[in-house]
Design brief:
Elements (H helix, E strand, L loop, with lengths): L10 E7 L6 H7 L5 E6 L6 H7 L3 E4 L6 H11 L4 E6 L2 E3 L1 H13 L4 E10 L2 E2 L7 E8 L3 E5 L5 E4 L8 E13 L2 H21 L6 H18 L6 H24 L11
Parallel strand pairs: 1-2, 1-4, 2-3, 6-11
Antiparallel strand pairs: 4-8, 5-11, 6-7, 6-8, 9-10
Helix pairs in contact: 5-7, 6-7
Length: about 270
């Protein structure tokens, strides 16, 4: 990883991975400017660990999958820098975003920074798609108490930092969301069941009609309002798969409710 040329604040970039050997090399190369890169592996059976180690990352294995929140909390425990940026294994930091991250770290200020995605799906960049502002990714490390949630997890801040400034890194983060139809079907199953389990814990109700309403509204929002229709077949597939996830999440919440507590494993 990059050697610190000054005594200013330092940056750790953390990545969660599971069978991402085909992609994680590009992800880690884009993170090489950080003072520390940590990969928390969830029990990969491909060459994810070897590729990550070859890229200079510190790799820690936790195959006892308990959800994304637990894995991110474990990652925080291995971060030794002043700031931590969470990068997914299917994302790439652009040079423009790198510059903004470095500027935020140099400030030394407490804060929470969100990212803006640029979606790449099925081999095509969805240039017209309005991805909008994504999740919180950059934190001063001493602010973080951990993460909570099996999927779509949320950061938990120490109480004294509840009112810390929220900012947005405007340069785009490349998100290779869905590379193939086959891979998207696998991802659909994983996220449907994790999302349904999370809602079951919150005592929410499911059903086909709720799923139809949720899936339809999701598709119209992405395909029409966010201009997915301007992105060709790749844009349609991307919006359709996200809408399917919304539909099946409610269907599983109703019909698979009794088994959802056992579905957090991959």
């Amino acid at each position: 990883m990059a050697e610190a040329l000054h005594r200013g604040p330092t940056l750790c970039i953390g990545v969660l991975a599971m069978n991402e050997g085909h992609r994680i090399g590009a992800t880690l190369r884009s993170a090489a400017f950080a003072d520390q890169v940590v990969v928390v592996d969830s029990g990969s059976t491909d060459d994810t660990v070897a590729v990550s180690q070859a890229a200079g990352a510190q790799v820690f294995s936790y195959p006892d999958w308990q959800g994304f929140g637990v894995q991110r909390t474990r990652l925080i425990e291995h971060a030794t820098c002043d700031y931590v940026f969470f990068l997914d294994a299917d994302e790439v930091i652009t040079p423009a975003l790198q510059a903004q991250i470095e500027a935020a770290v140099r400030s030394g200020q407490p804060g929470v920074w969100r990212v803006c995605w640029r979606i790449v799906a099925f081999g095509h960049e969805l240039k017209a798609y309005r991805a909008g502002v994504g999740p919180e990714r950059l934190f001063r490390r001493d602010m973080l108490a951990g993460y909570q949630g099996v999927v779509h997890e949320e950061a938990v801040l120490h109480p004294q930092f509840f009112d810390a400034p929220r900012r947005v890194l405007r340069a785009k983060l490349l998100h290779y969301s869905r590379e193939t139809v086959h891979g998207s079907l696998d991802k659909l199953t994983q996220y449907v069941m994790l999302g349904a389990a999370k809602r079951a814990e919150a005592s929410k109700r499911g059903g086909v009609l709720r799923g139809m309403a949720g899936g339809t509204s999701m598709f119209l929002r992405l395909y029409v309002l966010k201009l997915g229709f301007l992105c060709g077949g790749a844009g349609f597939l991307y919006c359709f798969f996200v809408a399917l996830e919304a539909f099946f999440r409610y269907a599983a919440l109703h019909y698979d409710r009794e088994t959802l507590s056992h579905r957090v494993s991959r």
